[in-house]
């Protein structure tokens, strides 16, 4: 660490803080939406009903925002640490990168295997005429979300393992007392 922070480290530090902040917000919205299963006039929300009636979907709907919240806090802390060139921040960012990539893949699999069938059934029961358009939108949404969800984790995993990035976080050599000085 030569005292100067490389631009790429600054960029990742700032993006980590912003992305982590968005993650905390989204996790809160996810938890809130699960808590608000009734519509404005007390009517049942068909989407929430589909989640509440499927134990696997309900579990994912609780676990996903919880993990998102805590890993987003980790990402914010890592961003602050990156700006201070703290070696632990690079490690924390890499941990988040692995989590982010795994979450993107898991979300796509869960979307295809659990969400898509549950929502398709809900749409079939409530408004059959829009079924085909809905299914096309769901497939596109799952694929797009998986691709978009992989972008930042892959960037973290790539750039933070480059030698120039690693070099920015190396501790400076400690001045060793010389034998000639008698210390």
Keywords:
about 180 residues; about 75% helix; elongated
Care to describe what's here?
There is one protein chain. This protein has one domain. The chain is 77% helix and 0% strand. It has helices at residues 7-35, 46-52, 55-83, 87-126, 131-159, 163-168. The radius of gyration is 23 Å and the shape is elongated.
Low-confidence stretches: none
Number of domains: 1
Output the helix-strand order: HHHHHH
Strand count, sense and barrel status of the largest sheet are: none
> Helix- and strand-based class?
mainly alpha
Principal-axis shape: elongated
The count of DSSP E runs of length 2 or more, i.e. the number of strands, is 0
**Roughly how many Å is the radius of gyration?**
23 Å
Q: Tell me the number of helical segments per DSSP (H or I, 4 or more residues long).
A: 6
Compute the separation of the termini in Å.
Answer: 26 Å
Beta-strand content estimate: under 5%
The amount of helix comes to over 70%
What would the average pLDDT be, to the nearest integer?
83
Summarize the structure.
The chain is mostly helical and 183 residues long.
Topology:
Layout: H1 7-35, H2 46-52, H3 55-83, H4 87-126, H5 131-159, H6 163-168
């Amino acid at each position: 660490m030569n005292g100067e922070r490389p631009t790429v480290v600054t960029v990742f530090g700032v993006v980590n803080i912003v992305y982590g902040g968005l993650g905390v917000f989204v996790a809160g919205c996810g938890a809130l939406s699960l808590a608000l299963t009734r519509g404005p006039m007390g009517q049942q929300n068909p989407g929430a009903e589909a989640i509440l009636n499927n134990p696997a979907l309900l579990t994912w709907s609780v676990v996903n925002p919880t993990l998102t919240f805590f890993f987003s806090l980790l990402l914010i802390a890592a961003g602050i640490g990156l700006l201070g060139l703290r070696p632990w921040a690079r490690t924390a960012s890499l941990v988040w990168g692995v989590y982010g990539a795994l979450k993107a893949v898991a979300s796509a699999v869960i979307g295809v295997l659990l969400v898509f069938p549950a929502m398709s059934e809900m749409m079939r029961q409530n408004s059959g005429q829009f079924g085909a358009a809905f299914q096309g939108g769901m497939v596109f949404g799952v694929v797009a979300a998986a691709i978009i969800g992989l972008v930042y984790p892959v960037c973290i995993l790539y750039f933070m393992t480059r030698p120039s990035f690693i070099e920015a976080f190396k501790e400076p050599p400690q001045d060793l007392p010389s034998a000639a000085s008698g210390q």
